[in-house]
From TrEMBL:
Cellular compartments per GO CC: extracellular region
A GO molecular-function annotation: monooxygenase activity
Biological-process GO terms, alphabetical: cellulose catabolic process
Protein name according to UniProt: AA9 family lytic polysaccharide monooxygenase
Superkingdom of this protein's organism: Eukaryota
Reactions accelerated catalytically: [(1->4)-beta-D-glucosyl]n+m + reduced acceptor + O2 = 4-dehydro-beta-D-glucosyl-[(1->4)-beta-D-glucosyl]n-1 + [(1->4)-beta-D-glucosyl]m + acceptor + H2O
Family: Belongs to the polysaccharide monooxygenase AA9 family.
Species for this entry: Aspergillus ellipticus CBS 707.79
Pfam family, one: AA9
Endpoints of the signal sequence: 1-22
Length: 277
């Protein structure tokens, strides 16, 4: 093996490592101080017996993104080749979840979006292609007085890479997938230049609400020419339309802040009967 080949190989490894470091993923979620471990792309995909967690599993070891030319594929639902989380966390309607990102590059301006989809009897076994997502949170251009502006994900970075989302208080109790997503728009001025970073978590929502919003299939959330997807953020924008279905009327607007962890949570396995206690 020549030195040149070795160096090229090393450069490729370093560049792949830099990409992993540059983008982020969710390390854990926090509900009322209780932290639940996420899916660790740096170790879990390599583990033949990975820990059972509340996050959907993905072999996305490159910390990559889904691009608009894949909006009609299953990968847009819960990221690359995602498979069901094998557990869920319990949360009361009206309570908040803090999602902790490992890191997020400040060049990657764009919206923060949260959807829910009702799983029926179990999010651990539901077929993801049947999930119908409704939007409970969407924060896009927060301050347009500068170019490229201050965006939802800039607030996330300012809060130690965390995002707080409230489960609307009148959502009917049941099993739901939370689909949290950042969309990076730094390259979105040309078609297929946006980058979607969705991640999913299984929740059991408790309470006495009755709202059962209708939603859309993951593969129908976006198109590559939506005004919030094909957009040049390096020009003065007076407004920005967060892509996807309209926010449900029950959605709560949340003042962002990071959450203190007071305990580590054990995810719950199984469906109605197993988790009734
Ligand atoms: C910020 O997040 C990291 C985890 O990425 C955590 O260890 C640290 O305690 C957090 N800092 C604050 C001030 O909350
Ligand atoms: Cu990037």
């Amino acid at each position: 093996m020549t030195h040149i080949k070795t160096l090229a190989h090393l450069a490729a490894i370093l560049s792949a490592a830099a990409q992993v470091a540059a983008h982020g993923h969710i390390t854990n979620i926090v509900i009322n101080g209780v932290s639940y471990r996420g899916w660790d792309i740096n170790s879990d995909p390599y583990n033949s017996d990975p820990p059972v967690v509340v996050a959907w599993q993905t072999p996305n070891t490159a910390n990559g993104f889904i691009s608009p030319d894949a909006y009609d594929t299953d990968d847009i639902i819960c990221h690359l080749d995602a498979t069901n989380a094998r557990d869920h966390a319990v949360i009361a309607a009206g309570d908040k979840i803090s999602l902790q990102w490992s890191t997020w590059p400040d060049s990657h301006h764009g919206p923060v979006i949260d959807h829910l989809a009702n799983c029926g009897t179990s999010c651990e076994t539901v077929d993801k292609t049947t999930l119908e997502f409704f939007k409970i949170d969407g924060v896009g251009l927060v301050d347009e007085t500068t170019v490229p502006g201050i965006w939802g994900d800039d607030l996330l970075i300012a809060d130690n890479n965390t995002w707080l989302v409230e489960i609307p208080s009148d959502i009917a109790p049941g099993y739901y997938v939370l689909r949290h997503e950042l969309i990076a728009l730094h390259g979105a001025g040309s078609e297929d230049g946006a980058q979607n970073y969705p991640q999913c978590f299984n929740l059991q929502i408790t309470g006495s609400g009755t709202a059962d919003p209708s939603g859309v299939l993951g593969t129908e959330l976006y198109t590559s020419t939506d005004p919030g997807i094909l957009v040049n953020i390096y020009q003065s924008l007076s407004t920005y339309e967060v892509p996807g279905p309209t926010l449900i009327p029950e959605a709560a607007s949340v003042v962002q802040s990071s959450s203190t962890i007071t305990a580590s949570g054990t995810p719950v396995t199984g469906s109605a009967t197993a988790t009734a206690a």
